[in-house]
Write a structure and sequence with these properties.
heterodimer, A: alpha/beta, 8 helices, 6 strands, B: alpha/beta, 5-stranded parallel beta sheet, two-stranded antiparallel ribbon, 6 helices, 7 strands
Chain lengths: ~170, ~190
Amino acid sequence: MAAYDWSEDVFEAMRGREIATVATVPDGGLTRLLKRCEADAGTRVITLTTEEEGVGVLAGLWLGGQRAMMALQSSGVGNCINALGYARTLRAPCLMLVTMRGQWGEFNPWQVPMGQATRPVLEAMGVKGFPVDRAEEVGETFAAAADLAFQGDFAAAVLISQRIIGAKGFGK
Amino acid sequence: MSGSNLIRRRELVTALLARREGALVVPGLGSPTWDCFAAGDSPEYLYSWGGMGLAVPTALGVALARPERRVLALTGDGADGHRQPRRGRRANLAILVLDNESFGETGRQSGLTGAGTDLCGIARGAGIQETLTVTALDQLDALAELMFHTSGPTFAAAKIALTEEPWALPEKDGAVIARRFRGTLGL
């Protein structure tokens, strides 16, 4: 059975909410969504050198009146910790779509420390976590997180389980 | 130290901002923010007391959201002077690094530009064609031209002296600063 494609649901939720920019350091699980965004003339993809820059770019777009989101791997959340305090102090919305590593069936032990710390770290910085482990529920979870973020000027992160993405392996 | 750091930062910032002609300004945390406030308060300045490294990314976001407005990121060599908008992105963004070759805010420890890091070279490598190194106030016309009257991303580094300036502390509440700034854009 083909895996359910949640990226289309997220893209539709983005369009319905005028989220027209995605700032990203890409991850395998984000490929379809990012390609969908790149193919859309009305959506801007900004490639970052490090994830923390994305917190500034999102704040700047909001300051200028546009909605944006970040798409990143859970390891990149670690690169954002101090920057998340910036969004919180400005009380700027900060919406993150995070694909998890180091979690469900992870083969690479180097991914486990940050993967396991992702949600506690986000919550320590005041980011509301929206974990989701069923592909069919990613779109509605993303929509709920986006509404919370943009209606209330909060930071929110959708955490897409590695159970959905699929644990990687080296040919085994 | 290169020995070329002679410009007084407050003089330069005050003279430059007097010629900004409606450009929005995103000063980095600490001294660039105090410099802007000392030059005269404006709701078009997004003051910051924290968020090291985020002035240029934030200014990029503002510039992308508001292509009709010029946006100036004013930062330091120790904060995020090395960050550039990505290659090929045509943001209406000017970046000015106040370069004293030191971490002035934290005790004047040596910075990287005094040891040979070339900020204008980094900018050109990131695809910003128009760059300028400013070593004296008599370059103000050229600097204002590059910052405010050139389209697309531009970059300048000003060799400022390591000076002790009087405190000039603006509003501290980030939520207030942000909403005041948005208010100038009708948001």
